[in-house]
TrEMBL record:
Keywords: Signal
Domain of life: Bacteria
Lineage of source species: Bacteria, Pseudomonadati, Pseudomonadota, Betaproteobacteria, Burkholderiales
Native organism: Serpentinimonas maccroryi
Annotated signal sequence range: 1-27
The protein's name in its UniProt record: Uncharacterized protein conserved in bacteria
One Pfam family per UniProt: TctC
Similarity section: Belongs to the UPF0065 (bug) family.
């Protein structure tokens, strides 16, 4: 063998050895070794988007890596969830989602739900839901809009963001108690719906306080009532409307926001993410921001988060079943009726 060939072979073997050692070192390095992607289920400006964009920077500081955020709205969150399902189960793609996915199979939205995902953290619950309208609307209370809707069925344009979402579920609760026939207009999330409300293209919408409160404070939206048995910053509870006297039996109820990965992600990566997002969830600035929008901080990870999801799913799935709205009986999916 000539000298040139021996030199070439030696250089090649050295390069291969170096590459193998680099891969081994990378495999042994603690997770994460590169930036992560955060896929937000709903559009910009909504409750999920605001909550997750406020959350991510604090988790980045703990992890020492960037979390590159992108919105993939549509189909009540199924588009984003399906995208994450198709990514490698390595912990580098986070689903930044909300409660509708827990009901995907019950409502026939998709053939999967959160059972395919591991709950890294349930950050907060938006259990303060506001009914809002444009500032110049003729209604000022929940009773005003109830009376108008009952006198003018299917005339009021109401925001719908998909099956299993806050607008859908709260509308279902109210419809169980009184006649409430509106024209449901679909939007891909709270942000576009808020713009439509302000522009007069929608008449009313049920929104989490996280999405609506700043617009109400600034006078860009008017609040007609709050889904609570207690006043919220001077807004009368919806239960003040006589025909909604049975509403408290559904309470407390609300949307929630969380971070998920595929269940097949290695345990070490899961543990690192759980610890990082738990620490981020304790950040005083993040808590102040979330609580200022009417959210209840939860900061639940792993098994705690799973128990929370199971309880919420049981309550809501059986509400749908009893109202004749479920596409699939929760019992057949192993979802127990709440006690």
């Amino acid at each position: 063998m000539s000298l040139d060939k021996r030199q070439f072979m030696g250089a090649t073997l050295a390069a291969l050895a170096s590459a193998s050692m680099s891969k081994l070192a990378l495999a042994q390095a603690p997770f994460p070794t590169r930036d992560l992607n955060g896929i937000i289920q709903f559009g910009a400006g909504g409750g999920t988007d605001i909550s997750m964009r406020g959350y991510a920077p604090h988790a980045e500081r703990v992890l020492g890596r960037n979390i590159v955020l992108s919105n993939r709205p549509g189909a009540a969150g199924a588009i984003a969830a399906n995208f994450v399902r198709q990514q490698p189960a390595d912990g580098y793609t986070l689903l930044m989602g909300a409660e509708p996915q827990a009901l995907f199979r019950v409502m026939g939205v998709a053939d999967f739900d959160y059972n395919e995902f591991f709950p890294v953290n349930i950050a907060a619950m938006a259990n303060t839901i506001l009914l809002v309208t444009r500032p110049d609307a003729p209604w000022n209370t929940m009773q005003d809009i109830l009376s108008f809707v009952q006198a003018n069925p299917r005339r009021v344009r109401q925001y719908l963001s998909g099956i299993g979402t806050v607008p859908f579920t709260v509308n279902l609760m109210i419809s169980r108690l009184t006649r409430f026939e509106t024209l449901m207009v679909p939007f891909d999330g709270d942000g576009p719906a808020i713009a439509a409300l302000q522009g007069g293209h929608l008449d009313i919408g049920f929104l989490t306080s996280a999405a609506a409160i700043e617009h109400v404070r600034a006078g860009r939206l008017k609040a007609l009532g709050v889904l609570s048995d207690q006043p919220f910053q001077g807004i009368a509870p919806m239960t003040n409307a006589p025909s909604l006297a049975g509403l408290p039996r559904f309470l407390p109820w609300g949307a929630w926001f969380g971070v998920f990965v595929r269940r097949e992600v290695p345990d070490a990566a899961k543990a690192r993410l759980v610890a990082a997002f738990r620490e981020a969830g304790n950040n005083p600035d993040y808590r102040r921001m979330m609580e200022g929008r009417g959210n209840t901080m939860l900061n639940l990870g792993g098994d705690e988060a799973q128990r929370f999801i199971n309880r919420w799913t049981s309550t809501t799935a059986w509400l749908y079943q009893d109202a004749g709205q479920a596409r699939v009986n929760p019992e057949t999916l192993g979802i127990p009726r709440p006690r």
